[in-house]
Design a protein that fits this description.
357 residues, alpha+beta, BirA Bifunctional Protein, domain 2, 11 helices, 10 strands, 39% helix, binds 3,4-dihydroxyphenylalanine
């Protein structure tokens, strides 16, 4: 081999390398080309390793001939790499781009459960008349759920409330013999009356909403769990007329301004007199139909004047203070408001049902 042959081989290598660089269409291919021509086991090295065959006098010139070619190839690869990486980035960015003109995906928003919505509507109404929320616990004593409400242990009215008894919460005395300290799940929100009477000073107007429990089979109109709202007003000179006026407003608010209303005599141990409050049937408007047992009326709550015994149990003098109280089933009122025939639908957690509200 002589220097001319070497130069010719080098030129051929240069041509091939430049062509390969020009053909590389992505950075990874360019890496392969780089390694194939300029790498440790690349063609340029291999060509240079052949210089041992050159005459000794020619060898120093090899570097002068080869170096510009190496530099040219390095520069060509660097230029090409910059170009390809730019394109690569453009392609990636184009793939990641958001099309801001696409319509948005709908977000599924939650909403209030119909029972909670009704409870709040009831609370909003009574708040306008000064009734403030008063919380009372779901786990209650026999004393507050029954006895302080004028329902002694063997009173027949206990049959109105089939009761779930529970073991005492940790740390509470167990005196299981004494009915007084038996623990139960409240069967109504009325024990809130005793708590409010004992805690607050008249004049008072409180509203106690909450979950109640009964030991009873579930059907379309009875649940073993359900919700009530209890109202209590105590002041000097409170009368049944105040109660009637307030409940009329309430019925008109929830069921329409023309809705007929009436008081019927009722019985509860904790009120005297006791009344059932009826509204004209929401289905037939009073004409009489199967929904109202052909009476034209539907009972929506129980109420009355707070019994003197209850006032006294609450620490008040019944000669000085009078009060009225009422208790309503949120489930029933919600059924009537929205025409839901079976309260079990409120507890089934079926979104197709709940989304209708
Ligand atoms: N506590 C009664 C029940 O669960 C409802 C009730 C009736 C509440 C009359 C009252 C009332 O405050 O005065 O069935």
């Amino acid at each position: 081999m002589d220097l001319d042959t070497f130069a010719a081989d080098l030129d051929a290598l240069r041509e091939r390398a430049l062509a390969a660089v020009a053909e590389a269409i992505d950075p990874a291919t360019l890496d392969v080309v780089d390694a194939a021509y300029l790498g440790r086991k690349g063609e340029l090295r291999r060509l240079l390793s052949g210089i041992g065959a050159l005459p000794v006098a020619d060898r120093p010139r090899v570097g002068a001939i080869a170096n510009p070619t190496r530099q040219e190839l390095e520069a060509a690869i660097a230029t090409r790499r910059e170009r390809l990486e730019g394109i690569h980035m453009d392609v990636r960015l184009a793939g990641e781009a958001e099309d801001v003109t696409l319509p948005g995906r709908p977000l599924a928003r939650g909403s209030l459960h119909p029972l909670k919505e009704t409870e709040r509507e009831i609370a909003r109404f009574f708040a306008r008349y000064g009734f403030v929320p008063y919380e009372s616990p779901e786990v209650e004593t026999d004393e507050l759920n029954f006895q302080a409400l004028n329902i002694p242990p063997d009173h027949p009215a206990r049959d109105l409330w089939d009761t779930v008894y529970v073991v005492p919460p940790a740390g509470q005395p167990v005196e299981a013999t004494a009915d007084r300290s038996r623990w139960l799940l409240r069967t109504h929100t009325s024990p809130g009356q005793i708590r409010a009477l004992r805690e607050l000073e008249p004049p008072m107007r409180v509203l106690t909403p909450g979950r109640c429990y009964r030991y009873e089979a579930t059907d379309a109109s009875h649940g073993s769990e359900f919700f009530q709202v209890e109202g209590l007003m105590v002041d000097e000179g409170t009368s049944l007329a105040h109660l009637r006026g307030l409940l009329d407003e309430f019925a008109h608010h929830l069921f329409g301004a023309d809705r007929g209303t009436r008081f019927r005599p009722g019985y509860y141990p904790f009120t005297e007199p006791s009344v059932a409050f009826d509204i004209a049937c929401v289905v037939c408007d009073g004409a009489g139909c199967p929904a109202c047992g052909r009476t034209g009326w539907m009972t929506i709550l129980g109420a009355g004047m707070v019994h003197p015994v209850v006032l006294r149990n609450g620490g008040l003098d019944p000669e000085r203070y009078q009060g009225f109280a009422f208790g309503m089933g949120v489930d029933r009122i919600t059924m009537l408001r929205f025409g839901v025939p079976d309260l079990r639908a409120f507890y089934a957690n079926d979104l197709r049902f709940l989304e209708r509200f």
